[in-house]
Amino acid sequence: VSELKRILLVDDDEDLRAIAAMSLEATGDLAVKGCASAEEALATFAEFEPDMVLLDVEMPGTDGPAALAAFRESRHADVPVVFCTARTEPEQVQRLLGLGAIDVIHKPFDPLELAATIRKIWDGLTTG
Amino acid sequence: VSDEPGSRGVALLCDTSGIVTETVRDGLGLVNDPEGTPLSEMVAPGSREKAVRFIENVRQAGAAFNWELNVELASGEAVTLSFAGTHHRGVLLVIGARVLDDVFSLYEELSRVNNEQADLVRRAIKDRILVTTQRASVDTTQLDDLSRLNNEMANLQRELAKKNRTLERLNEQKDMFLGMAAHDLRNPISSIMGYAKLLLEVSLDDRQRRTVLQSIGRVSEHMLALVNDLLDVSVIESGRLELRREPCSLSGLLEQRVDFFQLVAEKKRIRIEREIPPGVVVEIDPGRVEQVADNLISNAVKYSPPGSRIDVSLVTGEDEVRLEVRDQGPGLSEDDRARIFGAFQRLSARPTGGEKSTGLGLAITKRIVAAHGGTIDVEAAQEQGSTFVVVLPKTWRRRAR
Fold first, then answer.
1. Is A85 in CB contact (< 8 Å) with chain B?
2. Reported pTM
3. Between the CA of residue B49 and those of A118, B45, B68, B69, B296, what are the distances in Å?
4. Under an 8 A CB cutoff, do B211 and A110 touch?
């Protein structure tokens, strides 16, 4: 069973990236790399080798679902992706899960809970 | 013999000298074609003098009754007829019949006919007057009223259609505003709350604390800009934008704004070149035009890659001035160019230094320029940079309505 160590965070909001990074580092002992776009994320994969990607759904240009499709086409097709979205309707969540995400996190997230939430998702993935 | 009085008598119109001008009735067969013949020559020779006196009487007294004159009818029959006559405005009406009663009957009948004709004429005249007055009133009043109402209705319809379009647009903007509020207003608030929570609950080192506090400051600044832009949009959209125009040195204003942004640009290694002739004075609202300049120059800095160049130039024409802000940024896609001056539009263009945008700046800029009677356009092709061109009238002539 591999351990969750490295998180790639893709969100166009610089401040959300900063908070998430800080809370994951400070409360979850995780290494976090932030990217502002899908393109930046794709360029980072090889060098950073994330265990999990937190992917914002509502981004200008390449949005979350398009980014996920691009990841699946890349050499890092197997990387587990968790969507982050401000939209909480069950249909939206179902649609995102249907695209191949392992889970959906609601924004805005509680910086004190984020690390625990992500670990729970990771444990479910490795045991289930 | 008919019972009709007319069949038992003659009625003639004569002039004042007694010459017959018209046969109104001839139920007796007095004479063929009497027109032009004096009444005195139509009677038997023994009555001629009396006929002349009768005519004289009628003419002078206005009426004469029961003058008996001998007459030879066309049939050759010699009869004595009772004559009566009236005079009215140079026309003598002479009536003759075998008995006086028939004269009266005939006279009454003619009067009645005359009255009826008179009534008819009166009515006709009245009708015509009515018609003409009615038509006139329809023309001048009712028709005017109708066409005025019609115009008002057409205007009202136009107004309603306009209002409807405005409401549709406002409704779209409301939807976009709600979408924007959900994203652009909630995100910074949740960021600030998140930062506060981290500061309170997590042990951070000094560097981290400093980062958090800087971020809170930056997010708050952006929210203030957003709220200011929203207030501007609401003022402009409700038509309450009032310009305080005064003669103002546009040259000085631009120089000052370029100086200000030079500092920001230097951090991104962007050069701002200027070509601003001195002493260009135009009638503008300086505060609002400064907003226009700030928006265009800050956008150019925001979307330009490091190491590139921005050109700010001012050209004066006869009646107008032309302000250009040219950058070497990524340019605009067709889709972005079509929507760039709309409010709450999310474009695919992205700031090159992680700067934030309210998405309202150019919408506000366009409206300020329009309020000055000017125009704003963008010349931009993808990968070739963008040039924003503002044309402002030098002087402000209140447009005649």
1. no
2. 0.55
3. 145, 8, 12, 10, 118
4. no
Rounded Cα distance between B10 and B79, Å, is 13
pLDDT tens, residue order, chain B (401 aa): 445 655 778 888 899 889 998 888 888 888 778 888 899 888 988 899 999 999 998 888 888 888 899 998 888 888 899 998 888 878 888 889 888 888 878 877 777 766 655 555 455 444 544 444 455 554 556 666 677 777 777 787 888 888 888 888 878 877 777 777 666 777 788 888 888 988 998 888 898 889 889 889 988 988 888 888 888 888 887 778 888 999 999 999 999 999 999 988 999 999 999 999 999 999 999 999 999 999 999 999 998 998 999 999 999 999 999 999 999 988 888 888 888 888 777 676 777 776 777 778 898 999 999 999 999 999 887 778 899 999 999 987 655 33
A19/B191 CB distance under 8 A: yes
- The alpha helices in B184-242, defined as continuous H runs, are 186-201, 206-237
User: Contacts of residue A58 in chain B, CB cutoff 8 Å?
Assistant: 183
Q: What's the rounded Cα separation, in Å, for the pair B47 and B271?
A: 133
Which are the contacts of B295, defined by CB distance < 8 A and separation ≥ 6? B361, B362, B364, B365
Residues of A in contact with B359 (CB under 8 A): none
Distance between first and last Cα of chain B:
84
Q: Does the CB of A112 have a partner CB in chain B at under 8 Å?
A: yes
Contacts of B190 (CB under 8 A, 6+ apart): A107, A108
B252: closest CA among B219, B225, B289?
B289
Between CA B305 and CA B268 the distance in angstroms is 8
Interface probe for B, chosen from A11, A16, A17, A22 (most Cβ of B below 10 Å), is: A22
Residue B96 and residue B43 in contact, taking contact as beta carbons nearer than 8 Å: no
State whether B354 and A86 contact (CB < 8 Å): no
Chain-centroid distance, C-alpha B84: 70
CA distance B220 to chain A (A): 11
Cα separation, B376 vs B320, in Å, equals 13
* DSSP result, A53-66: EEEESS-SSS-HHH
What is the C-alpha to C-alpha distance for residues B84 and B106, in angstroms, rounded to an integer? 10
Identify all chain A residues contacting B211, using CB atoms and an 8 Å cutoff.
18, 22
Compute φ and ψ for B112, nearest 5 degrees. -65, -50
From B360's Cα to the closest Cα of chain A, the distance in A is 16
d(CA A101, CA A64): 10
Q: Do A70 and A42 form a contact (C-beta atoms < 8 A)?
A: yes
Place of tokens 């004595």: B80
Q: What is the interface pTM, i.e. ipTM, of the complex?
A: 0.74
